[in-house]
Amino acid sequence: MASLPFSDDSRFGLRRQARLPGPLALSSGASLGPVDIAYETYGQMNADRSNVILICHALTGDQYVASDHPVTGKPGWWWRMVGEGKPVDPARHFIVCSNVIGSCMGSSGPASLDPATGEPFAMRFPVLTIADMVRAQAALLDHLGVDRLAAVIGGSMGGMQALTWPTLFPDRVERCVVIASTARHSAQNIAFHEVGRQAIMADPNWRGGDYYADGQPPVAGLAVARMAAHITYLSEAGLTEKFGRRLQARDAKTFGFDADFQVESYLRHQGLSFTDRFDANSYLYITRAMDYYDIAEDHGGGLAKAFAGTKARFCLVSFDTDWLYPTAESRIIVHALNASGAQASFVELSSPFGHDAFLLESPELNRVVDGFLRGGRA
Amino acid sequence: MSGTLRPDLALIARTVRPGARVLDVGCGDGALMAALRDNANADARGLEIDGSNVAAAVARGLSVVQGDADTDLGYYPDASFDYAILSQTLQTTRRPDLVVEELLRIGAQAFVSFPNFAHWRGRLSLMWGGRMPVTRLLPDTWYDTLNIHHVTVDDFRALVKERGWHIDGQWFLKGDRETTHANANLFAEHAVFLLRK
Fold first, then answer.
1. Element (DSSP H or E) covering residue B174
2. Sign of the CA dihedral with A116 first, then A121, A127, and A128 last
3. Looking at the structure, do residues A43 and A161 belong to the same domain, yes or no?
4. Do B72 and B48 form a contact (C-beta atoms < 8 A)?
């Protein structure tokens, strides 16, 4: 495969950060600038730049889609999908994965310094939307010299970004893969997020968001937020299979409030380990962006209208045990795509693992994404 | 290649106009859609109830949506396709008449193919054995068959007449060969109709 002469360009590779020119106009009417974006690229762009794939991460994900995480040391969050011989393959594709704005892994977010004051933005950071995240990704692609995406792919919040891409940039996307996601956040989704935000704000260490100076973040609140959210990522059957009512490192109940049950211990671990790698204020901003997400509302109430101008082909996947973004949410999108005449595929896959299934071993998911990306004509 | 297609599908593939917009309802793993795309440059979309079939079709690069012909056809706009195709699925739907109405709303024309339950082998089995027929085309036993509405060529013609649909074409198959229209109700194993409103 021919590669461009700038394949050793410093813009390409692992652990990159770009400062994008100009302020970014946000959905709220505010603007943000300068904008920093942290990202990684894998593989090489081919000569006609037709092999670029953008991968969008979920709420607490990051740019380390297929390389070891610098904080946890764990493999990239979608190593099952991205890598040699996988559906998204750096041997064939030029892969871009950026950290969304509002997050805390190197992109502009509430922990960034406000150039006006020299202090962290904290809650003075502007409220963002999913569309704002997508506009920032588009600016990053401009910076990388990428006009068109062979595909944009994402699961969960990443799926919201992927679905937003052809509505904002109908000429820049050829294929769009939306996994375990939705076209709008439901009341139930908003309700769970509000529980998490209130847990953070109720932590005395939160202090209106200004906790950066003394290194005492609202760890307890953030852990509770993560515990509540984590339950929504699983299924009852999966939890029962994994833990049942088994006790944790003891033979009998203590008749107290220790983590008697394995499931309690598991959730506490999930909550606490999350606080090592994530900023509480970022959690507030990103969940808010998801709550505001409603593509139909952004297009005068018509979801089909949102896709009217695009030639993109769509592939949607849901999982039968996902109750956070259930199959019905994907069907709403498929029906709108049918109504707009767009090329759409949809499949509901079977898995016991609930919403998290999109991150786990799923040969069927890999097969569908691989086939869709190859397009079947080769 | 259409040469390896099931006989009723090969017949439909030969008849579809090049470049047509086609909706294949109950498209299975997309064999007909792939043939229409590759040989007739058709813009083919599919609807299929079985998830592993959908996955197989998507892996062929086809646009297939997992869904149920009985409930999901209403989501397709009027006159959005040149052809709507229902092959070997009619007898498995809850309301075959309503499904065909939907096909004719969505497509300018509709292909409907189905096994003929009045074929003489079936009649013999019922008449002499007193048992529900199990044949090459209808291999399932009565308790695990997906075929919930047993239809014959003459039944279908009567429905067409009653609803005022037009028959633009009709073909009758015995094995992989076309057979005569005369006594089709007795001798055809399989029927293919091309309808218009």
1. strand B166-174
2. positive
3. yes
4. no
Q: Which residues of A touch B75 (CB under 8 A)?
A: 334-335, 338-339
Q: What is the DSSP letter of A132?
A: H
Q: A172 and A231, same structural domain?
A: no
Interface predicted TM-score of the whole assembly (ipTM), two decimals: 0.89
A317 and A338 part of one domain: yes
Give the tens place of pLDDT for each residue, A178-230: 999 999 999 999 999 999 999 999 999 999 999 999 989 999 999 999 999 99
Q: Across the interface, do A343 and B52 touch by the CB < 8 Å criterion?
A: no
**Whether residue A61 sits in one domain with residue A150:** yes
Indicate if A256 and A329 belong to the same structural domain: no
Asked if A335's CB is within 8 angstroms of B75's CB, the reply is yes
Residues A167 and A299 in one domain: yes
- Residue A17 to residue A12: CA distance in whole angstroms: 10
Are A207 and A234 found together in one domain? Answer: yes
In which domain, by residue range, is A259 found? Answer: 189-287
In order of start, what are the domains of chain B with their CATH numbers?
7-117+149-196 (3.40.50.150)
The last residue of one of the domains, among A287, A321, A343, is: A287
Q: What residues of A are annotated to the active site?
A: 156, 322, 355
Residue contacts between A and B (CB atoms, under 8 Å): 70
Exposure string of B16-45, with b = 16+ CB inside 10 Å and e = fewer, is: beeebbbbbbbbbbbbbbbbbbbebebbbb
Whether residue A9 lies inside any domain: the answer is no
Cβ–Cβ under 8 Å, residues B140 and B146: yes
Residue A1 in any domain: the answer is no
Task: Check B63 against A338: CB less than 8 A apart.
Answer: no
The encoded tokens of residue A46 equal 């081919």
Q: Is A142 among the annotated ligand-binding positions?
A: no
One domain, residues A264 and A347: no
CATH number of the domain bearing residue A110:
3.40.50.1820
Q: Is A7 domain-assigned? A: no
Per-window interface: B 49-68 vs A, CB < 8 A: 51-52, 54-55, 57-67
Q: Which of residues 12-51 of B touch A (CB under 8 A)?
A: 34, 45, 51
Helices and strands, counts by H and E, chain A: 11, 10
- Asked if the structure places residue A308 within a domain, the reply is yes
pLDDT tens track, chain A, 378 positions? 444 445 578 999 999 999 998 799 999 999 999 999 999 999 999 999 999 999 999 999 999 999 999 999 999 999 999 999 999 999 999 999 999 999 999 999 999 999 999 999 999 999 999 999 999 999 999 999 999 999 999 999 999 999 999 999 999 999 999 999 999 999 999 999 999 999 999 999 999 999 999 989 999 999 999 999 999 999 999 999 999 999 999 999 999 999 999 999 999 999 999 999 999 999 999 999 999 999 999 999 999 999 998 999 999 999 999 999 999 999 999 999 999 999 999 999 999 999 999 999 999 999 999 999 998 543
